[in-house]
Each structure stands twice: as structure tokens, then as C-alpha cells.
């Protein structure tokens, strides 16, 4: 392979599309893959879209504003930039985060026409993510026909949930149509379990573990002997904990009530619970936990939103520990879990009955181990990295070709 701006190739490109963002990373194809550069397109669809590039060596971000009307446009801009920086011929494969794999996909797989047809079929499962993710795969295919592309599914980690955990209490005929609890943030969970195996005590990764992925999207997962046995998200990523803009679990009677009293239709309700609820809806100020923590002392709405988030997270820890029959390790991750020490402290407050006690100094400093030395439960902070997990999966798939 020819020398490039990021050294010799070949490279693996990872693509992680959110509802209004696009994260892309370039890795040298080694074992394990080596991060070279990361790029984030934020506020896609807005006039002030932002492209931020961070080198894997300097870690220094460089940003500029540009027009990115949709995810495919962002991908086209990125591929043009990569053509100049590394040459598209030096990219060996592209790995995509695909949020929903339905009942069919339980592991990363090479993209095929049949897979794209199945993803289009189940797009109603997740209209917030699947259509844009399909468009990203197609955009790469148009620019680089024949390039190896792989789909890495966020639901795969939870694919084999126990039947009782996956089953929805609705008429059985819908189960045959694929309506079940799926769980999400699986790429993050897989990465965290790899890291726990690496940094944890002997046998810790085989114990009773709760993974708390707390970011703009938030979920918790109970893991026993390395397998997901329960998780807070269900059929869609809207369910479970309150999140930045998503409501989390709601009484389904609210849908009928708003339809009768406000004439709210399905699309309007969908928009409300996915974009206008959660921290933003309760606070009426911001979906960003950093803003709310900064304002909670002077604005009761901010204080209430933070309290609600921590309350539901603490409740979820208790429920998941019950499914595990106890708890050995609690892992905090995601943007809030990694950076919001007050939130971690409040979630763990009054949890001594489960053996959870955190050291205030360690927590404030964001140390890798947050629990007290005499704590029965090891409380850890492990930064997640979905892009690295995608790159590892693609590297393994290439080795099987």
C-alpha cells in the first residue's frame, strides 16, 4: 500500500450515524486496529452543520461550519476528503453501526443486497436511524463499488436475551411479526466487556455486571457470564430510562389520552417522545446534562430533570441486580457516565444494601475504580469506544474472507 497522510495503509473506515450526527473514524488495519483520525459531523440538516476532525496522535480538534443537508451528503464530503488524505484505494473495508438488526442479525456481517432489503423491510422498527444508515451504506457503495462493507448491529449483543426478558405482554400474534424487546447500545456493551476482561480482576468479566451506558441515549444492561440477560431498552431506543430528548418508558394510555384531548396523531406523538421529552422536556431548558447541572441551584426545573434522571437510573440498578441475583461490578460509561461525577454519586446514593459504596475523591477525580477499597461491589469508570469495536469486528470479518 502507498504512503498516505496517515502513514501506510490499508485502512478500515467506521461509520456511526445518529439522528442528526455522523461519526467516522479511520483505523490502520492491524490487530488490534490503530485509530488514525476521527471526524464528527454534527447538526446534520441544519444550516450551521459542523465538521470536527481529531487526529489520533495530536488529539487536537479542528472544526469548521459547512452545509450538510443529510447523512449521504456528509458521507460524500467525507469520501472526498479521504480521497485527498489517503486515497480511497487504501481503504480496505468500511464498517457501519446499524442500530437495529431485527430477529435476523445476531453478529456483524458483510453487507449484501439481501441484507439491505431486510433492513428496508424492518425500517418501521426504527425510523429514527435505519433509513439514514441504509443511505450511508448506499452512498459508500456508489462512490466505491465493490468495496467490502460490514454492518455491526447494536441489537446483536442482546440477541439471545432469555425468552421471558424478550417477550412483550401483547397478543402473541405480534411476537411472530418480530415485535419483542431487542435492547440497544450493544456495540458499547461489547467494547466495555472486552475492556473489563482486560483491566478487571481475574474472573470479574464472568461475574454479575451492570453496564450503565449513560449519554444522550441512555440504557443499562445486566450481564451474567458474559451474556446479556436483561436491558432497559426494549423494542425501540425510545424505551427505558429518561434520556436527553427521549421520554423513556411511558404509560401507553398517554397516547390515547393525548389523541382524545389534543387530537395528537401518531407522527406528532413520535416526535414528542423522541425529540421533545426527557431532560429537555422536563427542564424546558436543555437536553444537555452539563447545562442542567450548572443551572440546578437556581432553576428548579433543571434540578427536577437531573433528579428524575438519577432516580430512574438508581431504580434500574436495583431492578437489574434483582435479575442477576446480586451484583459484583457496576460500570459507568457514555458521555454522562464518564464525565458527570455528581450524577454518578446520586445514582449510587443509598445503595449500600446492594454493596455499592463509592469513594467521593475517586469519583470526583474520575478514576478508573470509583468504589471504596472495602466496597463489596466494584464500581468502575470505563470510557466506551463504539468505533474501535466496529473496527475490531470488521478486522475479524476480513480475516474470515
Key phrases:
21% strand, 15 helices, five-stranded mixed beta sheet, 2 domains, transferase, Nucleotidyltransferase, domain 5, 401 residues, 38% helix, alpha/beta
Superfamily (CATH H level) name of the largest domain: ATPase, nucleotide binding domain
Number of helices: 15
Mean of residue pLDDT values = 94
Q: Compute the gyration radius: what is it?
A: 21 Å
Helix content: 25-40%
Low-confidence stretches: none
The name of the CATH architecture of the largest domain is: 2-Layer Sandwich
- The CATH topology of the largest domain, please? Nucleotidyltransferase, domain 5
The level 1 CATH classification of the largest domain is Alpha Beta
> Alpha-carbon distance between the termini?
19 Å
When the domains are counted, the total is 2
Q: Which H/E pattern describes the elements? A: EEEEEEEHEEHHEHHHEEEHHHHHEHHHEH
Described by strand count, sense and barrel closure, the largest sheet is: 8 strands, mixed
> How many strands appear in the DSSP assignment?
15
Strand content: 15-25%
Overall, the morphology is globular
Structural class: alpha/beta
Widest sheet, order of strands: 7-6-5-4-3-8-10-9
Question: What is this entry, summarized?
Answer:
The chain contains 15 helices and 15 strands. With 401 residues, the protein is an alpha/beta fold.
Amino acid at each position: 500500500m502507498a504512503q498516505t497522510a496517515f502513514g501506510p495503509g490499508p485502512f478500515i473506515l467506521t461509520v456511526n450515524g445518529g439522528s442528526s450526527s455522523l461519526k467516522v473514524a479511520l483505523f490502520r488495519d492491524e490487530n488490534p486496529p490503530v485509530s488514525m483520525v476521527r471526524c464528527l459531523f454534527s447538526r446534520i440538516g441544519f444550516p450551521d452543520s459542523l465538521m470536527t476532525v481529531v487526529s489520533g496522535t495530536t488529539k487536537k480538534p479542528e472544526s469548521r461550519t459547512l452545509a450538510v443537508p443529510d447523512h449521504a451528503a456528509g458521507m460524500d464530503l467525507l469520501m472526498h476528503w479521504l480521497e485527498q488524505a489517503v486515497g480511497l484505494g487504501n481503504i480496505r473495508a468500511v464498517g457501519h453501526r446499524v442500530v437495529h438488526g431485527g430477529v435476523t442479525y445476531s453478529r456483524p456481517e458483510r453487507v449484501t443486497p439481501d441484507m439491505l432489503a431486510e433492513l428496508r423491510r424492518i425500517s418501521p422498527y426504527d425510523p429514527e436511524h435505519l433509513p439514514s444508515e441504509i443511505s450511508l451504506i448506499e452512498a459508500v457503495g456508489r462512490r466505491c463499488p465493490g468495496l467490502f462493507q460490514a454492518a455491526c448491529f447494536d441489537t446483536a449483543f442482546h440477541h439471545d436475551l432469555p425468552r421471558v426478558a424478550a417477550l412483550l405482554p401483547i397478543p402473541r400474534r405480534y411476537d411472530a411479526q418480530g415485535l419483542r424487546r431487542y435492547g440497544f447500545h450493544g456495540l458499547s456493551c461489547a467494547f466495555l466487556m472486552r475492556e473489563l476482561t482486560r483491566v478487571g480482576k481475574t474472573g470479574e468479566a464472568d461475574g454479575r455486571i451492570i453496564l450503565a451506558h449513560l449519554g444522550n441515549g441512555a440504557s443499562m444492561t445486566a450481564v451474567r457470564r458474559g451474556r446479556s440477560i436483561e436491558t432497559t431498552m426494549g423494542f425501540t431506543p425510545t424505551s427505558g430510562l429518561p434520556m436527553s430528548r427521549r421520554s423513556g418508558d411511558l404509560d401507553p394510555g398517554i397516547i390515547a389520552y393525548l389523541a382524545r384531548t389534543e387530537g395528537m396523531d401518531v407522527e406528532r406523538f413520535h416526535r414528542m417522545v423522541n425529540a421533545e421529552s426527557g431532560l429537555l422536556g422536563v427542564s424546558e431548558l436543555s437536553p444537555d446534562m452539563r447545562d442542567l447541572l450548572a443551572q440546578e441551584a437556581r432553576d428548579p426545573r433543571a434540578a427536577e430533570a437531573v433528579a428524575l434522571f438519577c432516580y430512574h437510573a438508581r431504580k434500574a440498578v436495583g431492578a437489574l441486580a434483582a435479575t442477576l441475583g446480586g451484583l459484583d461490578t457496576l460500570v459507568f460509561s457514555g458521555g454522562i457516565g464518564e464525565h458527570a461525577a455528581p450524577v454518578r454519586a446520586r445514582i449510587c446514593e443509598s445503595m449500600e444494601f446492594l454493596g455499592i459504596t463509592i469513594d467521593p475523591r475517586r469519583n470526583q477525580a474520575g478514576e478508573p475504580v470509583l468504589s471504596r477499597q472495602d466496597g463489596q461491589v466494584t464500581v468502575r469508570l470505563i470510557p466506551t469506544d463504539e468505533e474501535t469495536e466496529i473496527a475490531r469486528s470488521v478486522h475479524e470479518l476480513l480475516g474470515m474472507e
